[in-house]
Amino acid sequence: MGIEKLLEGNNHFVEYEFSENIEYYKELLKGQSPHVMMISCCDSRVAPEITCHAKPGEIFVHRNIGNIVPPGDWNVGTFLEYGIGHLHVDTLVVCGHEGCGAMHALAHRHCGDDAFIPGWLRHAQPALATVTEKNPYPDDPEKAKEWQSNLEIENVRLQLKHLRTYKIVRDSEREGKLRVIGLYYRISDAKLEVVDPGKPLKHDGKSS
């Protein structure tokens, strides 16, 4: 897709979606008031506004490689401060997904000579350690898919913990102003699942 394709898509959006709902889009000029903020992956197959069937203005989104929340990160921190402190969003979501390339790279150390990716993925390393301790990476391809899914879900749990290292999240959650939730998106059936923060990983019964 080149720039021409983007402009063509914008023309289609203006002609059909925008023109048919012009009053809604005029209201957006007055400001935004989303009720959900989401940290999700940059993966081009996973667009929260599409998978959640949401309109512009409904979800305040931060996307990065692997839906990671590094403690003390300026980018994530400003997102949290603005969303919680200024937009008064009451629901905060970390959303992982099936077939995540970042989690595959983490598990198999496929970063080559990349300068930045290895350092970024270290913020997901404890999730890999948890999954590997429970079940070593299997040779069977189908079990390997399930293993990676476990890693992707465990990474969501880990990033929820990282979110609570931010004072604004801890305080808002304690005061009952904010709900913090993990979600997992399965590309294979397009369904979202709520991640239970305390649910143990599935064990294949073969590893010690």
Structural description of this entry:
This protein has helices spanning 3-20, 22-28, 48-51, 74-86, 101-108, 117-121, 125-134, 141-163, 167-174; strands spanning 36-41, 59-64, 91-97, 179-186, 191-195. By secondary structure, it is an alpha/beta fold. It has a five-stranded mixed β-sheet with strand order 2-1-3-4-5. Helix 7 packs across helix 8. The protein is globular and about 55 Å long. The N and C termini lie far apart (48 Å). The model is unreliable at 201-208 (pLDDT under 50).
Distance separating the two termini = 48 Å
Helix amount: 40-55%
What global shape is seen? globular
Strand content: 15-25%
What's the overall average pLDDT, rounded? Answer: 93
Strand order of the largest sheet: 2-1-3-4-5
The value of Rg in angstroms is 19 Å
Strand/helix succession: HHEHEHEHHHHHEE
Number of helix segments? 9
Q: Name the quaternary structure.
A: single chain
What kind of sheet is the major sheet?
A: 5 strands, mixed
Summary tags:
single chain; 208 residues; alpha/beta; 5-stranded mixed beta sheet; 9 helices; disordered C terminus
